[in-house]
């Protein structure tokens, strides 16, 4: 289980859960129109860039926010991470609302790619007082750093005839494949690159999809499943709780049978 530290407590969740929480901080508890700071999270696709996400956000706000005007857009750094800062205003009834939004793209092995937005909102104008509040918070951000891991990831042989598993994050279906090639023929590559599946070997060890090295730059990019450090992803047993159905094998068609199978292979 992955442990998430909240302000009030900690909670452990299987990898299939995605952290898409929103945090809202207010400068005044009694004045709803005072400065607020929001942290929001959303899934990012494998081919998303800061430029494409920022352009998409601006287009969406142009449609959904009354009187939307983009005052500026610039590239910045947040704790060394590239980010885009959007500064804009819009109408909420007769009131003018100003927002400054800083957008970053993060890659997390457990959660996949995600977009994180840091949004400061204030009424009437984003004056020097509010700018100071926003800058102080942004400058305090420190992204979580993964601990040192000596695990060396290796690509799996495409001719492997061992059993492999793939859990569809959307349908919660667990697919059982008798060969690695069978898995490759079934899985949608684009969905896999966007984190739609969790992959495991016959012993329930986690796997991940990544590009293979190129002999020449002009070669077409090919992808494969690679071994994954147990420090960076959960074992298969931790996600069986969310599995709704099992497909692909007449022998391994129950959670109990699969649990016994991966335990036997883990003991080898």
Q: What features would you describe in this structure?
A:
- It is a single chain.
- The chain is α+β, with helices and mostly antiparallel strands.
- It has two domains: 2-140, 3-Layer(aba) Sandwich (Protein Transport Mog1p, Chain A); 164-266, no CATH class.
- Helices cover 19% and strands 37% of the residues.
- It contains five helices and 14 strands.
- The chain has helices at residues 50-64, 128-140, 180-186, 189-193, 255-266, and strands at residues 2-5, 10-13, 22-26, 36-43, 66-78, 81-92, 95-108, 112-123, 164-168, 173-177, 197-200, 206-211, 223-227, 245-247.
- The strands form three sheets. A six-stranded antiparallel beta sheet has the order 3-4-8-7-6-5, sandwiched between helices. It has a six-stranded mixed beta sheet with strand order 13-12-11-9-10-14.
- β7 (95-108) and β8 form a beta hairpin.
- The longest helix is centred in the first third of the chain and has 15 residues, at 50-64.
- The two termini are 24 Å apart.
Could you give a short description of this structure?
The chain has 268 residues and is α+β, with helices and mostly antiparallel strands.
* Order of H and E elements: EEEEHEEEEHEEHHEEEEH
Q: CATH topology of the largest domain, what is it called?
A: Protein Transport Mog1p, Chain A
Number of helices: 5
Radius of gyration: 23 Å
């Amino acid at each position: 289980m992955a442990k998430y530290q909240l302000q009030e407590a900690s909670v452990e969740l299987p990898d299939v859960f995605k952290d898409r929480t929103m945090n809202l901080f207010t400068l005044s508890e009694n004045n709803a129109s005072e400065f607020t700071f929001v942290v929001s999270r959303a899934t990012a696709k494998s081919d998303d860039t800061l430029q494409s996400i920022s352009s998409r956000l601006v287009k969406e706000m142009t449609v959904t926010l009354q009187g939307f005007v983009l005052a500026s857009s610039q590239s910045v750094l947040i704790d060394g991470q590239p980010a885009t800062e959007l500064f804009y205003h819009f109408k909420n009834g007769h009131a003018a609302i100003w927002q400054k939004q800083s957008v970053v793209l993060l890659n997390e092995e457990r959660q996949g790619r995600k977009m994180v937005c840091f949004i400061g909102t204030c009424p009437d104008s984003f004056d020097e007082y509010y700018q100071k509040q926003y800058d102080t918070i942004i400058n305090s951000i420190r992204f979580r750093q993964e601990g040192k891991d000596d695990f060396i990831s290796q690509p799996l042989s495409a001719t492997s005839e061992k059993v492999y598993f793939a859990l569809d994050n959307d349908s919660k279906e667990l697919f059982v494949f008798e060969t690695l090639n069978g898995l490759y023929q079934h899985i949608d590559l684009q969905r896999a690159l966007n984190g739609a599946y969790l992959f495991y070997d016959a012993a329930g060890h986690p796997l991940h999809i990544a590009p293979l090295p190129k002999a020449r730059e002009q070669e077409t990019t090919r992808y494969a499943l690679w071994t994954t450090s147990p420090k960076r992803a959960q074992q298969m047993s931790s996600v069986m709780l969310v599995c709704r159905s099992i497909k692909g094998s007449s022998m391994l068609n129950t959670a109990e049978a699969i649990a016994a199978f991966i335990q036997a292979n883990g003991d080898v």
